[in-house]
Amino acid sequence: MKRYIKSDKEYEAGGETFEGYMGATGWKGKNYDVHMDIKDIAKVIRSQFRKKFPNYKISVKISRFSGGESLTAKVWMHLSDLMPKDQFVKQASESPWNYSHGYWFGYPDANGRWQNIPAENLYSMSMEEKIEIFDRYYDYYIDHYTNDAYADINYGSEPIPLLYDEPLKYVKGLIDSFNYDDSNSMVDYFDVNFYDHIYYAYAE
User: Fold this and answer.
1) Spatial CA neighbour of 72 closest among 41, 101, 93, 94
2) Which of 187, 201, 110 is nearest to 158 (CA)?
């Protein structure tokens, strides 16, 4: 039986964790419905976002494959959402853990060559060293990601010098609310409602 999504219904982000497969932490979004097709989920994400952020553009695409399904969202941010350089460098240098993701941190050296260092190394550096690194990172970010219409950034994969990132946070939270994840990568076991990818670029 075909399920119809009411366009006037409001969907809120949220969900709960549970003890997952072999001790992993699972996730079940509050809007998760095993009978809801990913195509309908994409429609909801697109519609809800446009209502909440009418001045921003979003595209939401789906893919079906033998191993499951995926949902990819792309949001066009505004250049005015960017944090001024001095503000970004100050904040990142004082709290580098807020601007590093995972175990590694990447940045360009003085010659423009990309370097990867353990994120924990940032904490033991002097303030002068951190200021120099984040200063160069900001210039690299502006040069590579704001001047190329095709430069997509995977949300959460790089330090984001954004003054305003609520559209991205909203999309991430809403997508998670429709997902279910009982995976355990330690034993190579994957059980999700769908895989998700969030990208953003800059509009003029």
Assistant:
1) 41
2) 201
* Euclidean distance between CA atoms 175 and 127, whole angstroms: 38
Q: What is the dihedral of CA 123, 128, 132, 138, to 10 degrees?
A: 70
For residue 202, CA distances in Å to 75, 108, 154, 155, 173 come to 8, 21, 13, 13, 21
The whole-model pTM stands at 0.88
HSE-up of residue 120 (Cα within 13 Å, Cβ side): 1
Which SS3 state, helix, strand or coil, does residue 114 take?
A: strand
- C-alpha dihedral, 98 to 49 to 56 to 85, nearest 10°: -10
Residue (of 144, 160, 139) closest to 82 by Cα position? 160
Q: What are phi and psi of 189, to 5 degrees?
A: -115, 130
Q: What pLDDT digit, counting tens, does each position of 141-200 carry?
A: 998 888 876 688 899 888 889 999 999 999 999 999 999 999 998 898 999 999 999 999
Q: What is the mean pLDDT of residues 58-72?
A: 96
Cα–Cα separations (whole angstroms), residue 165 to 20, 70, 100, 168: 31, 23, 16, 6
Q: How many CA atoms lie within 13 A of 57 on its CB side?
A: 7
Instruction: Name the amino acid, one letter, at 171.
Output: V
86-105 pLDDT, tens per residue?
Answer: 999 999 999 988 887 778 88
